[in-house]
Amino acid sequence: MAFAGNESKAEEMKLNTRAVHTGDRKRSGSWVPVTTPIHTAVSYFYDDTADLERVFANEMPGPNYSRHGNPTNDALEELVSSLESGAGSLACSSGMAALNLAITAALLDRRRVILAATALYGATISMLMKVLEPSGIETVFVDFNDESAVAAAIAEHKPGALLLETISNPLLRVAPIDRIAAMAKEAGAQLIVDSTFATPLIIRPIELGATFVVHSLTKYLSGHGDVLGGVVVTDSANIEAVRNLAKALGPVLGPFEAYLAMRGIKTFPVRMERQCANACRVANWLATHPAVERVYFPSDPAHPDAAIVKRLFAPNLYGAIVSFEVKGKGRDEIFRLMNAFRLVIPATSLGDVQTMMSYSAMSSHRELSPKHRARLGINDNLLRLSVGIEAVEDIISDLDQALKV
Ligand SMILES: Cc1ncc(COP(=O)(O)O)c(C=O)c1O
C-alpha cells in the first residue's frame, strides 16, 4: 500500500505529495507503520519453504537476502522510481557505485564504447579513463551541446551508451537531453543521465527518452550531509538486468542509509525550491560584485544553454549551484577567502541544507591534470557554491565579507 486510503490515485498525485508518501505504509499483519522502518535482517524465511523457493524464483514478491533486496531499500526504490518516472530503481552505496552499475547494465549487450560529455564530474572522468578504459571500455568525449558533433561521433564510434549530466559539474552546462535521447535511440544506444545537480523537481530525463537516470543520493535528495548513497532508475526493459547485476556485484545501499535517504526525500522538493530561489538571489548579487570576474548560473540570459534551460527545465527553477571566478586570484588567495567564511562551509559536497563552498581544482576535479582542467574551463580562480536553505541575506553578507579579505 502506497497511500493510506488513496492507493488508486497514488501515481496521479503531484511530485511534492509523492515525495512525502510513496513507498511508505506497507502492511505488516493488522497494523501499518506510518513511516518505513529500518529492516536490519540480512535473511528472511517463510512459513512454508516452498514460498522461499518462489521468492528466489521471482514468482512471489518478498525478501530473501538483503543483497537481493530488503523492505527498507524496496520502499526507497519505489519512491525514487515514482519521482523520476521510472519503472524501477536500485539503491547503491554511493553515486559512483550507481553510475558504475548503470554503465555496466547499459553495455551488457552493446558495443563497449561510451560517448561521454566533456563536461562531467571529475571522478566520473577518472572512472571512465582510469578504470573502464584499461578494462576494455573505450570512452570518446564530445561536447553534447554541439549536436552535429554528437551525430558525427555516433556515426564514427557506434557507442553502446551515451553519458551526460543534466547540469554539469562545475560549469553548469545543460545539454538538449530530448534531442540526444532521440539520437541515442536511433543508434540503438542507451542514454545514461546523471541528474544529481538537477533533481526530478527540475527535469525528469526518462520522460525525455533517457534509459538510465543516476543520482548521488548523497546530495539534494538526502540533503542533510549525513548519508552517502546513489541510485539507478531505469525503464521496464532494463530494470531486471540492473537487479540481476546488483545481486552479482553487490553495490547495494545499507538499510540505515536507505532510511535516512527516504527521510530526506520527504522534504527535498521544499528544500530544493528554497535552495533554487536562494541561488538565484546569490547569482544575481555575485554578478554585480566588483571582485567577481564571471558567474555561471543557468538563469542568466547570457548562459550558453539558456534556450535549452527554458525549453526543458521547470519554470523558475535553475538548480542551486552557483559557480564563479574571483578576479585575479590564485590558489593561495582562494584558500584565504575560504578560510574567511563564518557561515558558508568550505567543504566538499553539495545539495545539503547548509551552504557549502568547494574549490573544484582541489576537490571535484583534482584528479584531472591542470591542462585537462584548463581545457574544460575549470580555472584556478573558480569556486563552486552549493546554496543552502539559510536566510539568503546571511549567505550574501558572509560572501561579501570573505570577498573583501
Ligand atoms: C554530478 C555528480 N555525480 C556523482 C557524484 C558521486 O556521488 P557520491 O559521492 O555519492 O559517490 C558526484 C559527487 O560529487 C557528483 O557531483
Which percent bin holds the helix content?
25-40%
Structural class: alpha/beta
Task: Give the overall average pLDDT.
Answer: 95
Biggest beta-sheet profile: 7 strands, mixed
Strand order of the largest sheet: 1-7-6-5-4-2-3
β-strand amount:
5-15%
Would you report the number of β strands? Answer: 11
Which regions have little confidence, pLDDT < 50, spanning 5+ residues? none
Q: Which ions and ligands are bound to the chains? A: pyridoxal-5'-phosphate
Q: How many H/I helical runs? A: 15
Q: What labels describe this entry?
A:
globular, alpha/beta, 15 helices, binds pyridoxal-5'-phosphate, seven-stranded mixed β-sheet, four-stranded antiparallel β-sheet, 405 residues, single chain
Compile the SSE list and pairings:
Layout lengths: L14 H7 L27 H8 L14 H13 L4 E5 L2 H12 L6 E5 L4 H11 L5 E5 L4 H11 L3 E5 L11 H10 L3 E5 L4 H4 L9 E5 L13 E5 L4 H11 L5 H11 L2 H20 L4 E5 L9 H7 L8 E6 L4 H9 L16 E3 L11 H7 L5 E5 L5 H12 L2
Parallel strand pairs: 2-3, 2-4, 4-5, 5-6
Antiparallel strand pairs: 1-7, 6-7, 8-9, 9-11, 10-11
Helix pairs in contact: 1-3, 3-10, 4-9, 6-7
Bound molecules: pyridoxal-5'-phosphate.
The site of pyridoxal-5'-phosphate has 14 residues, from α4.
Describe the fold and architecture.
Helices cover 38% and strands 13% of the residues. The protein contains 15 helices and 11 strands. The strands form 2 sheets. A 7-stranded mixed β-sheet has the order 1-7-6-5-4-2-3, with helices on both faces. Strands 8-9-11-10 form a 4-stranded antiparallel β-sheet, with helices on one face. Strand 4 (161-165), helix 7 and strand 5 form a beta-alpha-beta unit. Helix 4 packs across helix 9 (239-249) and helix 6 (147-157) packs parallel to helix 7 (177-186). The chain is globular, with a radius of gyration of 22 Å. The model has no long low-confidence stretch (mean pLDDT 95). Pyridoxal-5'-phosphate binds next to helix 4.
